[in-house]
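Hi C.,

You asked whether I'd gotten around to modeling the 165-residue construct. I have! Everything is below, sequence then structure, no commentary in between.
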Amino acid sequence: MAVVSTAGRPALQTICCNGFYAGLDLADLVPRIDRHLASMRRHGQAPALACSAPWAQLCRNLAGLAKDPRRLVGPEFDEDAELARLRAAGFRGAICVLTTAGTFARYAFRDLEGALARADAGAEFLDGAGSTYHVIWWHQYRALAHLGLDRPPAAIRESRDRLET
């Protein structure tokens, strides 16, 4: 009987989001993330999978593989259904990740009101991934959406203060 180690599987989640943050070419990143997601499924790594799937869909959106690139929806992922599932499970970290990816998708495709709505709806879950880039990006793109809508400086004070830290 072969012994299969799953010790490295949680690190695959880090590779998925850090590959995105590092600006890897989407043509290389999408298939890499797909391979990692398959491995996470095969080894039952539900937490890592929940934190990686939003990035997979975001990369597909950015690569032009989604009907509505502002929303994280595709054949294998639906952000609203996933958000409901994660809320029911109380998985704060994955909700933070999903909120960040959804905020960025809306911002990137110029749905600034939608970006703010997604960011604000997930604000209470930032503590779920407090020591990650996700929180920094949440603050950054929430602030940029406010600025894009010509909101007063007070609207971004909290995010600006957090980003200065």
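If it helps when you're writing up: The first helix runs from residue 9 to 21.

Thanks,
B.
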